[in-house]
Amino acid sequence: MRRRLLQSLVPLVILLAIAAALPLANYVASGASRTLFVSRSNDADWFADVAESPLQSGDIATLRQLAVRYHKLYNTPVFIVDVDNRVIATSRSGVNVNEPKLRAELDRTLAGRLNDEPPALWPWRTADMIVSRPVVNNGRVLGAAVLMVPTDDTRADVQRWLLVVLGGLLLSLGLVVLGVVQPVSRWVLKPLQDLDNATHQVARGALDIRVRTDGRAPELRRLGDSFNSMALSLNQSRQREREFVADASHQLRTPLTSARIHIEGLSRLSPTARFALADIDRLGRIVQRLSRLAGSDRPVEGGDAEGMDLAEAVSERLIGWSAVYAADDLELIVGKMQPGRVASELEIDDILDVLLDNAAKYGQPPVEVSVLRDQDEVVLQVRDHGLGLSSNDLKKIGERFWRSTHHREMPGTGLGLAIVRAEATRVGGRVVATPGAGGGLVIEIRLPALDPAPLPMPAEAQHRR
User: Which residues form the signal peptide (predicted)?
Assistant: First the structure.
C-alpha cells in the first residue's frame, strides 16, 4: 500500500518540479540571449554611425579596417551593405546576403525597422545571431551595418546553468521525497498499518488485540471500530466456547464416575453390562479430550529452557504402541529418530496416541513413525498407507468436530486432530498434512527446536567413519 502511494505521489512531485524548473530554464536561456543581443546591438549602432560618412563619400577603406579589427578582437564578422543590398565593406569574404534568414533581416533593417529580440539561446540552437542597424542620414536610410554574432560561448554558459538547474532539481526532488513524501505517506498509512498488524495478531490467535480509533479520519475510525467489535465478538465467542467445554467436561466427569462404579457392580451379574462399561469409558475419554481442548490453546509461558528430546520421548511411547499394533496384526515401523529438543510442556504422549489411533482406524499398514530434524524445527512424522484425503479435506484437518466423509460411519468424535493442532500451537508448533508419495496420509507435527541444528559432517570425515 505504501509503495502504491509513493508511486502516485512521486510522479506528482516530479511534474510539479518540472513545471517550476521550465520557467527558470527559459529565464536563464532568454536572459543570456538578451544580454548578448544588447551588447552587440550597441556595437552595431556604433558601426552604423561610423558607416554614414563612407557610404556618402565612397571612401570605405577605413571602414573595412575597422570591421577587420573588430572581427579579430571579438571573433564576430561585420559587413556593411548599401540600400541595394550590395556589400560595401566586410571583415571576411564570402558573405551571402541572399541567404533567407539574413535577407529577411536586411529587408527589415533597410526599411528602417530595428531587429526583433532573438529567441532564447538553448544549447541545441547552433545558428549565429544576426544583429543589424540601419545607417541613416537626415531620415534617409543609406544602408545597414550587420554583425553575425557567434553564440557558442553563450550557449555553453546556458548549458552549464541548465546543468546546475537540473542538479538542483534532482537534489530538491530527493529532499522532498525523503523529507516530505515518505513521512506523509507513512503518516497517512499508519492507521492502515496498525490495522494490518492487528489483523495478523488476530490470525495468530491474539483475540484481545485492539486498534486506536481516536484522532483519525471518520472512515478510518469506523473501520477501526468495526475491527474492534469483530475482535471483541471473536474473543467473547472463544471464551464462551472454552468455558462451555470446560464446564461440560467438569459437569460430566462426576456422573460418569458414579455411573462407572454402579455399572462395574452390575458387570459381575450381567455380561451385557460390560458393553455399557466400555461406553462409559469411551465417554470418559471424550470428556478428557474436551477438557484438554479447552485449555490447550493457551500459549506456554516460561517452561524448562532445556526441554526434552523428542526422539527419546517418542521412542519410549512407541514401546507400548508396538505391542498394541502387534496384538491387532498391524505393522508399526520405527523410522529415523534424529535428536532434537522441544518444549518439555508438550504432551507428546497424547499427540502420539491420537495419531497412531487414527492411523490404525482410518489408514492401512504399515504405519511409519519418524522424528526428523529440519533446520530450526523438529518434526514428528506419522505416515500410513490408506486411501488418504482429498485436497479439500487436507485443508480442514484439525478443525473441531470435523470428520472426513469417508470415515463418518466409523467411531470417533472429530476432536483428536483438533487436540493435536491445539497442543502443537500451544508450544509454537504447527500441523502439516500432505498426501503420501505412494498413497496414504502423512501427518507432520513441526515444533520449534530448542537446540541448534547439528552441522553436516564433512565428506572426508564420513568416509573415514
Answer: none
